Amino acid sequence: MDNPIFIGKVLHHLDQLASTNLYAAELLAKSTPLEGTVISTYNQFNGRGQIGSQWESAPGRNLSLSVILYPNFLKPTEQFMLNKAISLGVRSFLDELTNKTVFVKWPNDLIINGKKLAGILIQNNLLSTQINSSIIGLGINVNQQIFEHAPNPTSLSIIQGKYFDLNSLRLKLFAALEHYYLKLKALNFNYLNEEYLSHLYRYEEESSFLDQNENRFDGVIKDIDAHGRLAVEVKGKIKFFNIKEIKLVN
Description:
2 domains, seven-stranded mixed beta sheet, 5 helices, alpha+beta, single chain, SH3 type barrels, BirA Bifunctional Protein, domain 2
């Protein structure tokens, strides 16, 4: 991909931060940063995953960053399209580096060989008719070899058997994100939907799930609806699940 035009043009790189998303939110609260502004650190010591879960990252080993975007061309009901575009951008970036098939695990993980390689946390500021601003938080396991708490993790270094230069990787990531964000900005929803489903983990495969009460059941992932809910066929009927209402266990 070509070098990015606007993502990463303004870059705030700090030695350490509790949370790049929190720093981005503070910037937005007091100013209007240029679209594509990135907050980056190689030592994020209090990063968050989806719904408040913690993100484990060893200092100096991984990519931890947040991108500020203004997708005001999207309606609040279309906000999961942003999730799709960002997921596809990160997936494309990882796929090129590993030469292996990387999958999107709904709603916010990137998976290779069944193990978690990256996570996404998107925080949208909504107005009545549009998305006013978005903070795209990304955590990508690059050179970390040992994980103490993360469930079923892997890293680029583990997969490829070598260490990566974080600065050069960051530029490649910006280019991949920008490519898919521009697809979104052109309202190319059909393309994004098809691409997302073609790389959705366990799509159209018999799988086991746990519900909120830890009850296990079998089903087949059939789609993601317009609200970002997972559509699962269970005993011949389609059921829809919001984030954290269901967990894939195989």
